[in-house]
Specification:
alpha/beta, 2 domains, single chain, 10-stranded mixed sheet, globular, 31 strands, disordered C terminus, Rossmann fold, 9-stranded mixed sheet, about 650 residues, 19 helices
Length: about 650
Amino acid sequence: MGMMLANPERIVAEALAAALTPPPPLDLNRWAEENVVFGRESPRPGPYTTDAYPWNRRILEVLQPDHPAREVALRGSAQFGKTVVALVFTCGTAAVEGGYLLYTHPQEDNAKRWAKTKLRPMLRQSTALRSVFGEVDDNSLSYIARRDGQGAIQISGARSESSLSMISVSAQVQDDLAKWEDNNAGDPEMQADSRSDGFPFAKKFKVSTPMVAPGCRITRAFLKGSQEHWHVPCPHCGHHQPLTWDNFLDNLREENPDAACFSCTGPDCGCLIENHHVMAIRLKGSWVAHNPSAPTDCVSFHFWRVYTGVFTLAQIARKWLEVKGDPESERVFFNDWLGLPYEVAGTAPAWEGLRDRADESGRRRGIIPAGYPLLTIGVDVQGGETDPRLECQIVAWGPELRRAVVDYVVIPGWIGDEKIRSALTTFLARKWRNEAGNEIEADMLAIDANAYTDEVEDWVRLHPRSRVIAVRGSNRDTAPPIEPVAYERNKKGKKKRLQGRWYNVGVSGMRAAFYRNLTKTDPQERGYIDLPRGMGDQFYRQATALRRVRIHAKGKRGVTDGIDRYSWELPSGERKEALDTGLYAEAAAIRQGWRERQMDEVFWEGLIAEREKPRPGSAQLDFEDLTRPGPVPQTAPASKPTKGDRANRLA
């Protein structure tokens, strides 16, 4: 039997042809189905299937190298799969195409947590990814290189300008973009974008749940692009349409949230689209551009929870009715449930109208009205050579997030003066009469420690943390209403851990909520603000002084970055102590459980019964020699501040 010998020239030719033949274009949908497996940490463990997430198909198609889109934006609700799309894009591109990729989170801590809980499980559960990247441990999670040296994934935080420099990438993901904040070099979004300037066919994937508008980064990217929405067929007439929040609201009846539904917008239809219909049609949709004239290299998508099948229409309706009327909770609902930015009130209603409404109410200043049993004080520390003073607002709090301004008092003098500190201590012990004739001590006082930090801290530590806290305002739109400060720095710069006495207050969001609530005129409405007569023009001018304005900002190094931002600004010559002290009093109320127990009828009924049950009153202390009504522009004898460390050293 003869032996067949291979033709060596043919073998060389075939090998050369194989080497010179370009690989097939990357198909991210097929790659995901062949290589992505979710573990038990996922709500849908097992292999990835496009049929389960049909809306992902087009998003992944436009993220492929052969698609002309260069900037892709995905705006949507929380917890619907945005991270899965970003992971498939990142890992599939890195594994097949190679090159260097950048994955940026709002902060380094977010990046580390994502790498450990999202990226590493995917790398370990995929045979293809393990063969490309090898085993990944905790020490290599910020920079994951291919084993063949043909690329890497760098994971960064937007607050660190150094992590957004000295690197060029052909693809990148800007995750949680709406939460990005300026770093020391200016705008991090522009810094990240510039990392791909050297690649004419680079891909920039911007993905996020939105925050507040105007000024929401992901919404700006969405509006710039094609604005594609998921359209589904009407189960009655077949007309394709998006399921919108406005349509849902039109069909929502508060007395029967379980009957919540949509209605068809097709010609000659108008039939109801109920929950069982949505479950049947949600996977049969397609993406439709609402801005078809957008540049072909800018594609954007909007998606919200109604299509996921996780929540029923009744659950969505009940959640809305639960938060309706509370601006902070409404914002979370709009962002996390609807995938929409929350429009903040950039200006307050006219102060003259508020003054007139209060004066017409006839409620006496200095008396706690019925139905507002919780009492707190907000204190703003003012320095200066001519008029050092402590401005104090007393506010009562009730159920359904309602509040009532009780009084406003100014203590002339500097916080470092022992006499003034003693006066503030005496003021804390003062009792306030309610309509039942009972006298109530303030449950908590919150004092501004952003200036004269040492002097404020010395006074705060004289009192139990259950009654006195130090606060400072945080102007970040993303800041929660109140959050503890972990540590402070002493005069030598060393860290000192704090013990529940210091808090950051998210004044930006609280201002917007306060201004929105000021427009409410029904005393029974959630968030209503009750105002007494006799507070004077200055109080209302100060309480409504701030404006949220658009600015063309510069980085801290003086370089114009071209990004429009929104900031709260105080017009020249105006003051805002009446606003600040009200927000500090609100922070104290939150610490006392006012927000978390807003709907707890048993709690409020018990507290009202305890404090408003008629009983023999006690004589009110006389503070006329220590205080003056406020806010009144008036020069008082000054106690000259001493030199020292007056900078805020809170971390």
